[in-house]
Q: What sequence folds into this?
């Protein structure tokens, strides 16, 4: 009986060693991640300065993407309003793929659209304006209202809200 217990102890020790060694090897080969580190090694002032400086470039990139996908002009439909009185925008706001009209696209079968890769980008998910950083982005009228009511400023130093007020309720 004692002999079995001694062998069991050694087997258990060997198993634990294998698990630990495998875990260490896996940790060294871990792929990069988009998660922010728990321990930030850069001072906040430095992060804020860097991201504030990058803000114009981030916003230009996002506005170029929006302009390529959508007609951002303010073209209210005559006599048509939302329940709050705001004008409804007229016509399609998503742009058809370059070189095609909506009529041409409408005459294609779904298989043909997929085969030619001409699905309108305006119907694809819209990325966060600064995806690596993420976080909530509020329209200016919301920021101003929270500031007025609660005294909290939700303005971000790294980016602004990217959609015009005429698209919002």
A:
């Amino acid at each position: 009986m004692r002999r079995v217990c001694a062998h069991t102890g050694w087997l258990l020790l060997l198993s634990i060693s294998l698990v630990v060694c495998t875990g260490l090897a896996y940790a060294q080969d871990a792929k990069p991640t988009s998660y922010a580190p728990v321990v930030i090694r850069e001072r906040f002032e430095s992060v804020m300065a860097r991201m504030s400086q990058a803000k114009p470039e981030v916003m230009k990139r996002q506005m170029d993407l929006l302009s390529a996908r959508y007609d951002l002009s303010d073209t209210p439909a005559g006599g048509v309003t939302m329940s709050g009185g705001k004008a409804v925008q007229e016509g399609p706001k998503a742009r058809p793929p370059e070189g095609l009209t909506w009529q041409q696209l409408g005459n294609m079968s779904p298989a043909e659209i997929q085969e030619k890769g001409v699905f309108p980008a305006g119907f694809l998910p819209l990325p966060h304006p600064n995806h690596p950083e993420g976080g909530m982005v509020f329209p200016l009228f919301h920021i101003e209202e929270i500031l007025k009511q609660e005294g909290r400023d939700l303005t971000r130093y790294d980016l602004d809200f990217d959609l015009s007020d005429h698209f919002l309720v």
